[in-house]
Amino acid sequence: MPNKAAAEKYLRKSKKLVAKNNKQKTAIKDLAKKIVKALSAGETGNIVDLTRQFQKTVDKAVKSGWLKKNTAARKKSRLSAVVKKSLKK
User: Fold this and answer.
1) Beta strands of the chain (E only): which ranges?
2) Whole domain around residue 17: which residue ranges?
3) Residue 71 in 3-state DSSP?
């Protein structure tokens, strides 16, 4: 346990930040998994909405400073390549 009031405040603050970071991380990962699952199931109608939602979530993470710009670009590019490849078949 922290001994000083400032240390207690930092502990509260870090718990909130960890929760926020985990929420953003799981949102991005869950959307990516949903897209891959929809592709394997052959649900093409739902994929467009999911990819838009994924890109929006990743862009918001960049805007808030949670993700770096190039990391977001890489994630979006790789997922869109998978979508494009599976839709061609």
Assistant:
1) none
2) 5-88
3) helix
pLDDT in tens, 28-47: 999 999 999 999 888 888 89
Structurally, the chain folds into a number of domains equal to 1
Distance CA(31)–CA(17), nearest Å, equals 21
Q: Is 45 exposed, middle or buried (0-12, 13-18, 19+ CB in 10 A)?
A: exposed
Q: What is the CATH number of the domain that holds 57?
A: 1.20.58.110
Model confidence pLDDT, tens digit, residues 69-83: 999 999 999 999 999
CA–CA dist 49, 12 (Å, integer): 37
Q: Whole-prediction pTM value?
A: 0.83
Contact between residue 33 and residue 53 where contact means Cβ atoms under 8 Å apart:
no
